[in-house]
Amino acid sequence: MEIIEKSKKTSIMKAIRQHEFGGPSVLQYEDAPVPEVKLGEVLVKVHAIGMNPPDWYLRDGYKSLPKEWQPEGSFPIILGTDISGIVERVADDVKDFSIGDEVYGMVRFPEGVFGESKAYAEYVSVPASQIALKPERIDHIHAAAAPMSLLTAWQFMIDLGHNVQNPLQPNKHEPVALEGKTVLVNGAGGGVGHFAVQIAKWKGARVIAVASGKQEAFLRDLGADEFIDYTKTHAHEIISGVDLVIDSVGGPTTGRFLHTLKPGGALFPIFPLGFDGTDEAKKLGVIVSATQVRSNGAQLAEVARLLNDGTLQIAIDSIFSLADAQKAHQRAALGHIQGKIVLKVI
């Protein structure tokens, strides 16, 4: 009887849903059914949700992607991937997690891109393989801010963690050795960027951080050896001989960093769409490579140790309630985000 009552109590939840593509105003705080738990899954009572660029890309309908790549699906949809919370239910075949466990994860990305991940909600069902125990040292707000940004930096720089081929390039993405190297991180103050700075320093690299001037102290505290204020100086005009560029901004202008690299160096654009400098890269003898971040609970368990011992710090730009998701997306649209924006549920 107790189980039945519990099930009734959690049959309806609050969620942010949208019934059409558009700006922040399409995000509606409303009732939605609690997702069912299938084999291999757990139900998480969400405490916090980390926001990422794919959230607003999907909200708008992924207009930046070629038409043939734009996801198809049906409304209403629920955005989001990154969560931290407490396990509420466990499928019979799940052995690694129990009710009451504090967990964090990136849910169904990219395979659930058209709203199947359902992170902007009070409850989320998630494959057990995509979550890990939350680092004990940090709270749910900080844990929710980590998964996509940290996994992106990790899979680009340390361990790819999957064998899915990037359709934009003929070769498999391979991280490069960092110890003793010089690494330039463009967009260093953002979600992926501030983790890239820390990972490079952890691995023994000299780090040049490129961001707006107000972020200099923040990035030097994270370990940046040199700082360039892009509002005053163009890094690609004054820097040369770099081993690796992590361009967390990416896009059509990422090719400007090709000439900052030494022969044999590498440019990793986090957002590679629009890059058209393949021939120039070959002439210069440098590598341009990218990958698509993918959910990976085992990697989150690995980086949890670095979050627990303070090797990696998580910066929070701002916190909004779940009901204020529209305001959170308006904040994101302003840009110059330092770290991550988080939605607080509990």
Question: Mean pLDDT, as a whole number?
Answer: 94
Number of helices: 10
**What about the largest sheet?**
7 strands, mixed
What is the straight-line distance between the termini?
Answer: 27 Å
- How many individual β-strands? 16
Q: Which fold name is given in CATH as the topology of the largest domain?
A: Quinone Oxidoreductase, Chain A, domain 1
Q: Class of the largest domain in CATH?
A: Alpha Beta
Along the chain, the helix and strand elements come as: HEEEHEEEEEHHEHEHEHEEHEHEHE
Question: pLDDT under 50 segments (min length 5)?
Answer: 1-8
CATH superfamily of the largest domain: Medium-chain alcohol dehydrogenases, catalytic domain
Tally of structural domains? 2
- Given the C-alpha coordinates, what overall shape results? globular
Quick overview of this protein structure:
Helices cover 24% and strands 26% of the residues.
What would you note in describing this structure?
This protein is an alpha/beta fold and 346 residues long. It contains ten helices and 16 strands. It folds into two domains: 2-147 and 294-344, Quinone Oxidoreductase, Chain A, domain 1 (Alpha-Beta Complex); 165-288, Rossmann fold (3-Layer(aba) Sandwich), CATH 3.40.50. The strands form three sheets. Strands 3, 5, 6, 7, 8, 15 and 16 form a seven-stranded mixed beta sheet that branches. A six-stranded parallel beta sheet has the order 11-10-9-12-13-14, with helices on both faces. Strands 2-1-4 form a three-stranded antiparallel beta sheet, with no helix packed on it. Helix 10 (325-334) links the parallel strand 15 and strand 16 (340-344). Helix 4 (147-157) crosses helix 5. The chain is globular. 45% of the residues are buried.
